[in-house]
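In this supplementary section we document a worked example of the pipeline. Step one takes a protein sequence of length 317 as its only input; no multiple sequence alignment statistics are reported here. Step two produces a three-dimensional model, which step three serialises into structure tokens for compact storage. The input and output of this example are shown verbatim.
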Amino acid sequence: MRGSRVRAEGVEAMSEPIDLGDGAWLDPLTRTDAFFALTQYKGPPIDVDRWVLTIGGAVQKPVERSYEALTGSYRRVSAVVTMECVINPVGGRYVGTAVWSGVPLRDVFQEVEVDEGAVDLFCTSADGLNRGFPLTYFRTPGTLLAYEMNGQPLPLAYGFPLRLVVPGYYGFVWRKWLQALTLSEERYADPEWLASMEAVKSEQVVLTSKILTPRPQEVITRTPYAIAGVAWGGATPIQRVDVSVDGGRTWLPADIVWRPPHPGAWVVWRRLWVPPAAGSWVVTARAIDAEGGMQLDGEDAYPSGLGRHHRVNVLVG
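The serialised model returned by step three reads:
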């Protein structure tokens, strides 16, 4: 949908549709109703008037905070951040970018005075899916206790009333339906959880690109044609994106046409293409970060995105 608006301070302009230069437009943000959701809430009804968030464990000043207190009495921050599921295949739909608003977790940690010996953060959720993670995951300034998504209160499917937003990490770290955060001086050691994590090659998001136009098997009839897509990674910003129309034998630089201030958000890229001849073509993209790291092109696409470049077969009429 073109022209969707996001009511969030300082980031509203980021939601403006992008002119790709060939008559097509692209929305850089993911509409909430189009954002992926792989898990459904199966816990008891949540009464926001009775709900509280408890922060305790290895802290000097444990607290309980109501929804009203978190939304009205703390510093509010909005940021454009990309979330990707760890099982997202190459070119898959389990990735999206939204404006998330809430309380910086760092502010809460300062308030409760986390003990120096704390090493893990245990997240208790209303759906009963409780997990612990290394505290280092959450130390970045961009980690939020989010209560809004795209300028509106979090829908239930996306973690209402409160969820974690953890830039640079896969979605399983972004715990939803939060009830308590417990700091611990011991590592979380649930055997079943640790066993499931053995298959995960990287908790941090790896360098990835996705082609949005053209679509697979699209017949291209206009020139120039905008080859366009998105690219994202971890904490290091995207430096450039290269595009190939011969399956990766030769590469051409694309233009970065949309870049949010947060490195945890995808960029939008575009390359105007004038096909030299009719026939079949293989469009490919690869991302390069600011440290010179280049997107991998291996065989394994599961999990953690450690897989191939995205390739799209098209026809030029």
